[in-house]
Amino acid sequence: MLGVNRELKKLQESGKYIGVGLVGAGQMGRGMISQIASMQGMKVVATADINLESITSAYKHAGIEASDIVAAENKEEADQAISEGKSVALTDASLMSGLDGVEVVVDATGVPEVGASVAISAIENKKHIVMLNVEADITIGYYLYQLAEENGVIYTGSAGDEPGAIMELYDFADALGFDVVALGKGKNNPLNLAANPDSVKEVAKEKGSSPKMIASFQDGTKTMVEMNAVANATGYVPDIPGMHGFSGGVKDLPEIFKLEAEGGKVQNKYIVEYINGVAPGVFIIIASDKEEVNAELKYLSMGPGPNYVLYRPYHLTSLETPLSIAKAYLSGTPTIAPYKGMVAETVTVAKTDLKKGDHLDSIGGYTVYGQVYKYEEAKAQDALPIGLVNSNLVLQRDISKGEIITYADVEGGESSLIWELRRKQDELLKK
User: Fold this and answer.
1) CB contact at 8 A, 115 and 229
2) What is the pTM of this model?
3) Topology given in CATH for the domain delimited by 4-158+318-331
4) For 344-430, which CATH class?
């Protein structure tokens, strides 16, 4: 197969393009629309968002003329507009996967319940699905991955998101036969378990981001979720619940990931971890038992060994998502998927003291944060997965700050699609 750029160029020269349907015109979606507008062989033919103005603004910033933007209210209008080369705006995301001109669907909502709906609809309509929704992936991704295979389409996480960037490093080193000791990412802000939309309001305003999103970064939930996705893709596990969160620079990583008995800081090999001090990069730690390989690595200035670090100092989030779209369509290859099943689980922990009758809210909210565990440890505690949290859940007892919330502690999730799919996944895992 040619490089993705050359394959896309060939597609363009043949008069064709990959029709992309995007759900979510927030920060990630807007950037993706503009990036794809600069590419060959690919076009965002339809975008869905509850805010129509967000879509039209994103299209206009991508250089699309107002006369080429069509707000469609049904499938017939949307299909007609796409056939005429227009860019469609939808407020009803349920229409997306049924459109004739859409070949790959991208979920960029970041909301687990919405992601579940988008993914199921895409797969049932025989469309490839790219998830920029790691929260949904760690909750029901294994079920969706299996369902996609049954339907002959690709289910994949996104290039540019940290799990995808880590997976690319892992695949590179694993293919070469290195002993991949650890997989990790940097965290670009101090851990603050109490972070909430009010405490991060000014930071969110400065960055032009949702306060909930910023709070989910600061309280560590996003980091837990991302490394959970890596665990489910590779089989690697957190060394301890919540991971260690060591501090250090890139040059410190080989020593940090030595075992404690060898002067390092970790208890086990084959782990996922985050480091304060290397953001916005991702990394893997490799080793070799071959004398000549170690000699070559030292010659190449990779350090004295026995551990060496492969470090990527950037990840371009949704700007790289088009590469996952292209790989899914052109070669039927996921960037990252939960190949190993449920290896880890991000459990729900009380952010503050909560009372019986209280409603939970959401990731990045006021009531809970996530902490990653080995899956079997979480299961043994009947821990509630963070991706199942929503405002319909009502506590059945008082919960202390820092306490894990269990399935038995809540009521109100039965009508949720993601809860239904999680039950199906649990049944699948029993087989």
Assistant:
1) no
2) 0.96
3) Rossmann fold (3.40.50)
4) alpha beta
Tens digits of residue pLDDT in 64-101 = 999 999 999 999 999 999 999 999 999 999 999 999 99
